Amino acid sequence: MNSIYPFGKAPLVILILAILSGAFLLVLDIKHGKEPVPDLVLATQARNHKPAYDKAIAEFEAMKAKEGKNVKIKLQLVQKEALQSRLQSALQTGSPAPDLVELLEGTIGFFTRGPIENVGFVDLTDRLKEEGLYDKFVESRYGLWSSRGHIFGLPHDVHPVGLCYRRSVIEKLGIDVTKLKTWDDFVKMGEKVSKVKGSDGNRLHFPLEMQTSNTVALGILAFQRGTGYFDKMGNVTIDSKEWLETVIWFVHQVSEKNPNRVGYDPGEGQNLYAALQDGLVLFFFTPDWRTASFQQDIPQLKGDLGLIPLPAWEPGGCRTSTWGGTGLAITKQSKNQELAWEFAKFLYCKKEDLAARFSDTNLLPPFKDAWTLPEFKQKSEFYGGQSIGEFFIDIADETPANNASPYTKLATDRTLDAVQTALHFYNENYGKMPTEQLEAELRTLTEKLLKEKADYVRAAIKRNVFLSADAEAAAASVPEQKGDDAK
Description:
This protein is α/β, with parallel strands linked by helices. It has two domains: 15-159 and 324-349, Periplasmic binding protein-like II (D-Maltodextrin-Binding Protein, domain 2, 3-Layer(aba) Sandwich), CATH 3.40.190.10; 161-322 and 407-459, D-Maltodextrin-Binding Protein, domain 2 (3-Layer(aba) Sandwich), CATH 3.40.190.10. Helices cover 43% and strands 10% of the residues. The protein is built from 17 helices and twelve strands. The strands form three sheets. A five-stranded mixed sheet has the order 2-1-3-12-6. A five-stranded mixed sheet has the order 9-8-10-7-11. Strand 1, helix 3 and strand 2 form a beta-alpha-beta unit. The longest helix has 28 residues, at 435-462. The termini are far apart.
């Protein structure tokens, strides 16, 4: 055996298991018995979480030691794609898996394609409600970690979205941000800004960052309007009236044929930062996590950035949306599920630790009891003395849901196809037909495209007999409404 694999029998067995089943790197750490087998393993892809989690682990272990219990927890950093693929393989084959895993937005659906009882994570729905925790979290955040009405993960964050802008540029242009209460107000402001030209006759400013190569901006706008790609039970909703109106508005505001358009796609990375620094783009969609990115990547703008809520679609309407998310799940393979649940609550519900993490990251936790602590009221020098915590807390409870589905990627891809086709039609026919005719045909085409794409996704879901059966059972469980109750 050693002549074939000179490092010994145990490492060879481990290597074979890792290759065949995608076993986690944990086994490599304990293969020679140099480290005791931990009671819990927490796997995460978020390197920036490590310092805070190391501290929380030490505190939890010390707390258990005072109770006379020797508990050891290991934190494991795993690359995003590897975490998903290895975890899926481990859950399917019964090979070693972490007790707790932090997952990113869009990944829970990867593990919930089959029957609800076969999902590899512990159902937390009853625990949350029986222990009085359900209402302590921002309710909309459960959508990212649920399937067919069952919650499989604790939300780590809220990620409400506002608009970030450069104070000096906005002041120079004479824009009063307090008057940007609706998107109609914003478009009117954009019409004035579009008239500011450079020496070459080109526009100097575009009001809003609007990416056209993906669905980030589109999704933010749709969520704010009260819709999404799926409802709570996983039904496709991209052919709703709200989506239709959002896509038409989006097409108008990103079309290069529209001289007064508000949207501009500055790209990512240094191009995006340059657009903010130079004033090419005036307002940027900014969730809590992006405020920290701006602080880190463009420190020269310290004191010159400000935040405002999103303009509402209707007067008095929702002033925020959401972008991104992380959640914590407990695997059914864990031999210490009750201990894992206790640690999960310690990690995500200890107010003092959540406040300290906010000071380091600007991430607003969804556990609302923490929001009263002084760290969330601190003024930010980088944002001109504005309190980032108070800003996001003011809009956090309005944060709309982004409901998870195994078919999210398919739905977003098909929606983007529809938008790009509608945009191409608008650009090709702008100025070639009367405005009223163009608008009517754009609406008809967009409605047709969204229906086609929605039906395509529905057909894919229907082929999954488990999801179809669960959806039918859920619909049958809802009592038929009659009379006034049905209105």
